[in-house]
UniProtKB/TrEMBL annotation:
PANTHER family: BLL4998 PROTEIN, RIBBON-HELIX-HELIX PROTEIN COPG DOMAIN-CONTAINING PROTEIN. It comes from the Archaea. This is Transcription regulator. It comes from Candidatus Halobonum tyrrellensis G22. InterPro entries: Arc_rbn_hlx_hlx, Ribbon_hlx_hlx. GO terms for biological process: regulation of DNA-templated transcription.
Length: 62
């Protein structure tokens, strides 16, 4: 699995850490970030589908 590096504000990291560990929803930060990215991409796909911007329909290309 490829690794990436990101910079995030301390407040956001502290909020993330509240959900990580034995008492949290995620085993580690990586799991939390992966879940967040996955959910965000799913939400963006739903928005694109509602607006008719499906695969092959984007004009800007990515």
């Amino acid at each position: 699995m490829p690794k990436i590096s990101v910079e995030i504000p301390a407040e956001l990291l502290a909020d993330l850490d509240d959900h990580v560990g034995d008492d949290g929803k995620f085993v580690n930060r990586s799991d939390a970030v992966r879940a967040s990215v996955r959910k965000t991409l799913d939400m963006l796909d739903e928005i694109d589908a509602r607006h008719g911007r499906l695969d092959g329909d984007d004009e800007g290309g990515a």
